[in-house]
Design goal:
alpha/beta, Rossmann fold, 6-stranded parallel β-sheet, 35% helix
């Protein structure tokens, strides 16, 4: 699947593993139209694209950043409400925008944010986690259990082929109409250091061909890339 000619190489380099992971985190448990989606680390490579995809699909997006000084970098056309995690009570701030709780959480730092997630999630909701700082995170088991929360762990190498192919189609379509752009964060590698082409990246991760070099991807370190 070729990247349309009018789109930048920076964008194309970002639509491989980060883009597919963002797509799966948003849509892996059904549509988000009319839902409230909390994106932890909304300025990161995956988080930024997840927010844009959720917004495109009709969700209200709440995004978090690590530091208050980064709030000005959040795009208000995508993120309806931005919350800094260094304030006294980020859960209260999120609840101010989602009094009943959020329906889906896109999680970049499970070990750091488990308690916060439990404090703001609505019953029968989903936490889609693609990274963690600690490899054995402690979870507030009983609050999550009594809320009937589903924890979806996302490892992009093992996504179903059909999910990767759907992500490739959707990402290309959204990017082609200008609804998806690269957020210029310091953790995002320049396109020349990433993958040679969108074609190779998406075809590899849709299970169609196997390039010799996989694109770089940020997991645990993404928690600080905002």
């Amino acid at each position: 699947m070729a990247l349309p000619d009018h789109l930048s190489d920076d964008l194309g380099a970002s639509l491989g593993i980060p883009g597919i992971t963002a797509h799966r985190s948003v849509f892996g448990d059904g549509p988000v139209d009319g839902r409230i989606v909390l994106v932890q680390g909304v300025l990161g490579a995956v988080g930024s694209m997840a927010a844009q995809l959720a917004r495109w699909a009709g969700a209200t997006v709440i995004g978090t950043v690590t530091r208050s000084r980064d709030l000005e970098r959040v795009d208000p056309s995508v993120v309806s409400h931005a919350v800094a995690l260094d304030q006294d009570d980020p859960a209260k701030a999120i609840r101010a925008h989602a009094p009943q709780g959020v329906h889906r959480i896109i999680e970049v730092a499970m070990s750091d944010n488990a308690d916060l997630d439990a404090a703001v999630i609505v019953g029968d909701a989903v936490i889609a986690a693609y990274a963690t700082r600690a490899d054995r995170p402690e979870l507030p088991f009983w609050p999550l259990l009594f809320a009937n929360v589903t924890l979806r762990l996302l490892g992009s190498d093992d996504f179903p082929v059909e999910a990767k192919q759907q992500a490739a189609r959707d990402l290309t379509a959204v990017a082609a109409v200008g609804a998806l752009k690269v957020n210029p964060v310091r953790c995002l590698v320049h396109a020349s250091r990433a993958v040679p082409t969108w074609h190779a990246t998406l075809r590899k991760h849709a299970g169609l061909i196997h390039p010799t070099e996989s694109p770089p991807y940020f997991t645990g370190s993404s928690a600080t890339c905002n």
